[in-house]
Give the backbone structure.
Amino acid sequence: MNAMRGNLGWIEVVCGPMFSGKSEELIRRLRRAEIARQRVQIFKPVIDQRYATDHIVSHDDGRIHAESVNNSADVQAKLDVRTEVIGIDEAQFLGDGTVDFVVRLADMGKRIIIAGLDTDYLGRPFHPMPELLAVADEITKTLAICMQCGNPAKHTQRLIANEDLIVVGAAGMYEARCRRCFEPDLAAKEAEKRKKTQLVSAG
Ligand code: ADP
Ligand code: ZN
């Protein structure tokens, strides 16, 4: 972050695929704000119960305390007016109301640091991340390592057959893939294969 005078508000967005270090980076920035004795509040959507509800936990087991919320209205309800720095993880699950809300917070002079998936399991922009990127003052895109070939990975590959937009999970259900190795229709293919096997074994 650049040097700033006074309490100029500021929106930072960290986005990329799963395993790319978004939570790690969010935790790093928030910890530094805490070391600087700023008033920090951290939120994560309740939908992400992978590891703990009162912490953000990264895939390399870094952690920081966090409050669980269902949507941006919930963040607003839990927000202390004295808070200077607001961290939000998994922002793609917080709903469209998040965009106006974070702009209002920045206009009030607060620093907001948001992490979230930029694309879904089909490679489509994951709302409201595109809108948050548009209103951000600073953007960081993180890349993971492709689990097939070792190249930089920008995609989240779903490995299991499920066509719901949100399927919460981590290792075993998703892996990072580069543009070349990404197979958005893998889940659909798996489901089709399973159906055929079931038909054969039933017949
Ligand atoms: P995100 O929040 O983007 O899902 P995390 O911050 O939780 O990512 O985790 C990042 C950590 O995950 C890395 O530092 C590394 O230890 C681990 N990791 C596991 N798989 C991969 C991968 N395919 N590429 C990069 N890092 C990975
Ligand atoms: Zn690859």
